[in-house]
Amino acid sequence: MAEEIRKELDTLKADMAKLREDIGNLTGAVKNAAKENVRNAKADAQDGMHKAWEDIEKRFETMLNEGKTAYNKAEHRVAEHPTGSVLAAFGLGFVIAKLLDRGDRH
Q1: CA distance 75 to 85
Q2: Burial 49-72 (b: 16+ CB within 10 A, else e)
């Protein structure tokens, strides 16, 4: 009977060792999967950030080009009608000055 108990204890010890090994392997697999998920998430975030930055650069370039076009049109109009442009600028400045004048000088 003692030998049977000893065999069962040896079997139980072997099963426990195998269980420890399996748990260790499972823990390692979970850690590796988590690391891979973190790497993938980081790469996805970086890709998204690069795409967003490229989109911002394209929009800025478009706005810059539109601004240059508007400036060139305005410059051309002023060159075509210099007297009218000076009078319009003077009139606009006068109106703005009147709007900003608080009436403190009475």
Answers
A1: 10
A2: eeeeeeeeeeeeeeeeeeeeeeee
Residue 30 CB neighbours (<10 A): 10
Q: What is the pLDDT of residues 30-73, one digit of tens each?
A: 999 999 999 999 999 999 999 999 999 999 999 999 999 999 99
Q: Is 78 exposed, middle or buried (0-12, 13-18, 19+ CB in 10 A)?
A: middle
pTM for the full predicted model? 0.51
Q: Which of 29, 28, 24, 3 is nearest to 16 (CA)?
A: 24
Neighbours of 85 (CB within 10 A): 14
Give mean pLDDT, residues 20-36. 93
Distance separating alpha carbons of residues 106 and 104, to the nearest angstrom: 6
Please give the angle made by the CA atoms of 46, 62 and 50, to the nearest 5 degrees: 5
pLDDT of residue 102: 74
